[in-house]
Structure formats: C-alpha cells, structure tokens
Specification:
With about 140 residues, the chain is mainly alpha-helical. It has a single domain, classed as Orthogonal Bundle (Globin-like). The protein is about 70% helix and about 0% strand. The protein has six helices and no strands. Helix 2 crosses helix 5. The radius of gyration is 14 Å and the shape is globular. The model has no long low-confidence stretch (mean pLDDT about 95).
C-alpha cells in the first residue's frame, strides 16, 4: 500500500469509529446474511464481540504505516480463528461484509478510491492470516 492509500483507510476509519457499535452490528448482521454457517462460530455477547472487532480493526488500521509492529498479533489471531472453525473461504465473506459496512457507515465518503484502499489493506492482511493459518 502506498501512503495515500494508508491515509484514506485511516481517515475513513476515523469517520466510522464514532459509530463503532452500530458499525459492528451492521457488519455481523451482513456477515450472517451472507453465510449463516458462520453464525454458530460466535458464542457469547455479540456486543462485546463487536467492541473487540472494532478495537482490533482500529489497532491494525492505525498501524498500516508500520505493519511489522502488529503482524505478530495478526498471526496469532489467524491461528485462533482456525480453532473457531474459520476456513479460507470465510475471508472473502468477511471482506464483502466489511466493505458493505463501510459503504453504509461512510455514505458518500465511501468513494471508489476509499473502497480500493480498504480492499488492498484487507487483501494484504487476509493474505498474511491465511498463510499463517493454512500454511500448505
């Protein structure tokens, strides 16, 4: 990612952060609509899960200009996801739900450039996670 893309992701996330709870609700609702088989992987308080999602997303977004700093945590997260039953194809569903959520949360600020920057960021991070979780 170039510095302009990093800035687009970070500035757009800053606009979504104030509505983090709503964004998390939108994300999980859309995720489960896209693939209902994913829903049983989530046990417990979904509000708390949503807060964890937004906190983790914020950490990664704010570290895009220095990914090496968060890669160990990202790789650990990938390993834990395997234990929850996450399969490689689920990453595409998550991408679709994330981009949809950003579009809803940002409205007209979700420009093609912002979508492209988020897509690139997600592809990079999902790639690291899949390589870690499914090394063959």
């Amino acid at each position: 990612m170039n510095s302009e893309q990093v800035q687009l992701v970070q500035s757009s996330f800053a606009k979504v952060a104030p509505i983090a709870d709503t964004a998390a609700d939108l994300f999980y609702t859309r995720l489960f609509e896209l693939d209902s088989d994913i829903q049983p992987m989530f046990k417990g308080d979904m509000k708390e899960q949503g807060r964890k999602l937004m906190q983790t997303l914020g950490l990664v977004v704010n570290s895009l200009d220095n990914l090496e700093r968060v890669l160990p945590a990202v790789k650990n997260l990938a390993r834990r996801h395997v234990d929850y039953g996450v399969k490689p194809e689920h990453y595409d569903t998550v991408a679709e739900a994330l981009l949809w959520t950003l579009e809803k949360g940002l409205g007209p600020d979700f420009t093609p450039e912002v979508k492209g920057a988020w897509t690139d960021a997600y592809v990079i991070l999902a790639g690291v996670m899949k390589e870690t979780a499914y090394p063959h």
